[in-house]
Amino acid sequence: MTSPRFPIPQGTLDMLILQILSLEPAHGYGIAQRLQQISRDRVQVNQGSLYPALHRLEQKRWLKAEWRESETGREAKFYALTPAGRRQLAAEKASWNTLTDAVRLIFNEGE
Amino acid sequence: MAKLLNLLGWRRRRLEDDLDRELRYHFDRRVRDMMDAGLSEPEARRQVAIEFGGVAQVRENVRDTWIWRWLDVFARDIRYSLRSLSRSWGFSLGAGAVLALAIGANTAIFSVVNAVLLRPLAYQDAARIVALEASWTNTGRTSREMSGPDFLDVQAQAKSLEVMAHSAGEDELATVVEGRGEFANARWVSGDFFSVFSQRPAAGRLLAPTDRVGDDPTSVVVVGHHWAQTYFGSSEAAVGKSILVYGRALQIVGVASPGFRYPEAADLWVPDGPTNRANRGRHDLLVVGKLKPGVDLASAQTEVRTIGARLAQEHPENRFEAMNLLSLQGRLTGHVQTTLWVLMGAVGVVLLIACANVANLLLARSSARTREIALRAALGAGRGRVVRQLLTESLVLGGLSAVAGIFLAALLVWGLVAMSPPNLPRIDEVRIDLPVLAFALGLTLLSVVAFGLLPAMNVSRLGVSDALKHGGSKGVAARGRGLRSTLVVTEVALSVVLLAASGLLLRSFQVLHHVDLGFTTERVLVAYSQFVATNDENRRKRIVFYRDLLERLRATPGVRAASGVAFLPMGRELRPAVEYSIHGRPEQPAGERQKSELQVIAPDYFRTLDIPIRLGRDFNDGDTPDRPKVAIVNETFARMAFGAESPLGQRIRIRPTDPWMEIVGVAADTRWRDPSAPPPSELFLASLQGAGGSLSILVRTTVDERSLAGTFRAVMREMNPSVPVEIETMDDLFAGALAYPRFRTQLVGGFAAVAAMLAAVGIFSVLAYLVGQRTRELAVRRAVGAQAVDVVRLIAGQGAQLIGIGLVVGLAGALAVARLLEGLLYEISPWDVSSYVGAIVVLAIAAAVGTVLPAIRAATIDPLVALRHE
């Protein structure tokens, strides 16, 4: 299957990418793999949204990219968080937590 | 900065390559992983390809992020720029005006260059239409026209031409339309003439190679659209009518399409063939042709030159120099190229100066904005970001100026067309069209880079803490000063170049304007007329007509003298050059005898034009056809033919079969034909003795010559209504000669004036700024006892230094440029000292004006106020 198991909300992909990269720099393929692994296959991202997102983040200066040798020995474009990206991730995490908490509260109330 | 270049090729390509590599890596890794999971390679590839769902789509999505991001930032920069420009509206208005002026002037001149030199001629397949020329030296003159036999030879031999046609022009040919004598611009053309230009008729048909030529009673003519409308109301009405063209009855078979012109609009096209032009030495055909599709100009040129060389060998009596083929556009506009390119160069220099000026203003402004910029830098704006912001501001400024400039250009074009020389080809095609707009846009972008980049780079190099600490009084300022000085020196230098060039042109124009023509042009009316005479009886009548006409005119009140002349000045009619032999000297073979220009005149010619007769007498009414033939020569003729001997009583003849003519007078030299050429040798024959054909009447008046034009016309109409006449003043006739020199002198002069003004503004802005920067220092100097004079000297000294360097550099540049102008200068050397001195003086005055105000401001600094203010 090529489509994600469930649709990733707009903007969430950016945050997930930042999160993955906060652990260590990775190339596009690695990011996709890791998203899939960590989410236990629940999140699958296609290339059509992954690469535009990476370039967008790079242009916002939240990521920086460099070409270096990958684990297979071939050159790959590795993305890493910039300080600005790290701050952005923190901010997004905080607001995400606030939001999900709020949503959970509301859902629980309704039960 | 990097983003700005995003759209530029190399940066873009690198991004694309990167993306490709990145995606390929992903693809290959996925395939490998799948193969590790047990799939065969083809199967894995297939799976991954499906998963990817179209690499192109992925790539496109990524690209969008580049562009949108860029546009977003750009839009923000523009908004910010507009705010920032409107905050300092004084600067914006000043810089904008300077730029708009320069862009407008450049665009206007370019629109002329584009219309006249660059845009293809308005014919179908214009690029394939060529002109053929033959230079020859039979009479010591060169010509572009070809002879009939040569035409036929080339037509038979040239393989690169699809079709060839010839035309011989005759402006103002006498015609009779519905009983009235009128002038018409006629062209004698061969049957293929209209097919060279792929023309279709507006009514009837155009000429065909089968149309009879010569005195055939079934002869036909094609007329111009405008002409048909003027005389018959419509094209259709004209077809089938008959008109008299130089005494021949021709039937109108068709009307040319309204826009057709070659080289300019004509009224009549009469069929003509080279068959009746058997004389190889008679060059009178303007030849055009159309290249076969796919043949390039160079190879056609080679072919025609080869044929020309062969013909020259086969027919030595013809004395070819060469045959040549060139694009029709080249032939039509060749004579104005230099003038137009000089103007383009001059106006380009104005743009450079304007850019230097705006760069200067920007520098001044950026030093005032040091704090703002430092603040932005401190808040995290990278160097590229700051430079981009400043460049965007320049771009916005340039864009707004360009809009204003294009409107200005429209106005200027209107003025240019109005003041352009009368015979500037294609001037009516000048307009502001897409290529011109594109030019204006390109020019604007170049200017923005020119005036915006340096100041922007300069500012961005600024150290943040420095700038914030010093509140903008150091930092950029210290750096900027060197740059600003360089810009001012550049401005001064460029202005000197332009001033010197315009000085040279002006001096040359003056000399030309005041050249001693050898006769006076004031209060002389010129009536161009044509008395059609195709047989001996009519020719006798013609002599009588002109004699009687002159007699009546001489009796008219207000007329001091009247005479007639066969060949008008100023190239209106090419006067023939003839060879002559002198009685008592060995006869030379044709081609090696002495040559002279020929003129045919009525009695009183010299008195009418105030030309002194040095020796002997004028022609008079006693010089009739049955009396011995007489001639008058000018001083140059006398000197060349007889040296120290007296010419009076000498006898000469033109053709060996002619009777000898006795020289009865020697007249002073004149520059009748071309004021810019030295007086040629001239031989005058008497119209009363039957020489020449129709005469142009010259009348010297004691009152305003224009007031007599009506009377003049009435007398001629009354004596013979079928003789068409056109009247103008001698002054107007000669004003035409100066049209080009006047045109370029006025324009280059105008540009030079603008340049000097801009330079003055540049000097002013630098010095004013300097005074502002040094207020404190100057105040301290005043406080410790410096006099106002010392301060003025200090500031003026700074100015003088810049101006001095600029002058030296400019003079060197001017000397280099002057050589390019050599061809346009008349009796003025490109090293004419007074032009350079003039340039220096004008610039010094402008510079002084720019220096005075800042110096005064410096002198009037009140130490107390200035020091307390700090």
Topology readout:
The complex is a heterodimer of chains A (111) and B (870).
Chain A: H1 12-23, E1 26-27, H2 28-38, H3 47-59, E2 63-69, E3 75-81, H4 83-110
Antiparallel strand pairs in A: 1-3, 2-3
Helix pairs in contact in A: 1-4
Chain B: H1 9-36, H2 41-52, H3 55-87, H4 89-118, E1 129-136, E2 146-147, H5 148-157, E3 161-177, E4 180-189, H6 193-196, E5 201-204, E6 220-223, H7 225-232, H8 235-238, E7 242-245, E8 248-256, E9 268-271, E10 283-291, H9 297-314, E11 320-327, H10 328-368, H11 370-378, H12 383-419, H13 434-460, H14 464-470, H15 476-513, E12 524-529, H16 536-554, E13 559-565, E14 577-582, E15 594-601, H17 605-608, E16 613-616, E17 630-634, H18 635-642, E18 651-653, E19 661-667, E20 682-686, E21 696-701, H19 709-719, E22 725-729, H20 730-735, H21 739-773, H22 775-783, H23 788-821, H24 833-859, H25 863-869
Parallel strand pairs in B: 4-9, 6-8, 15-20, 17-19
Antiparallel strand pairs in B: 1-10, 1-11, 2-10, 3-4, 3-7, 3-10, 5-8, 6-9, 7-8, 12-21, 12-22, 13-21, 14-15, 14-18, 16-19, 17-20, 18-19
Account of the 3D structure:
The complex is a heterodimer of chains A (111) and B (870). By secondary structure, chain A is an alpha+beta fold. Chain A has 4 helices and 3 strands; from the N terminus they run αβααββα. Chain A has helices spanning 12-23, 28-38, 47-59, 83-110, and strands at 26-27, 63-69, 75-81. In chain A, strands 1-3-2 form a 3-stranded antiparallel beta sheet. In chain A, α1 (12-23) crosses α4. Chain A is globular, with a radius of gyration of 15 Å. By secondary structure, chain B is an alpha+beta fold. Chain B contains 25 helices and 22 strands. Chain B has a 6-stranded mixed beta barrel. Chain B has a 6-stranded mixed beta barrel with strand order 14-15-20-17-19-18. In chain B, strands 13-21-12-22 form a 4-stranded antiparallel beta sheet. In chain B, α10 packs antiparallel against α15 (476-513). The longest helix of chain B is centred in the middle third of the chain and has 41 residues, at 328-368. Mean pLDDT of chain B is 82; it is low at 1-7 and 471-477. The interface between A and B is medium-sized, with 22 and 24 residues.
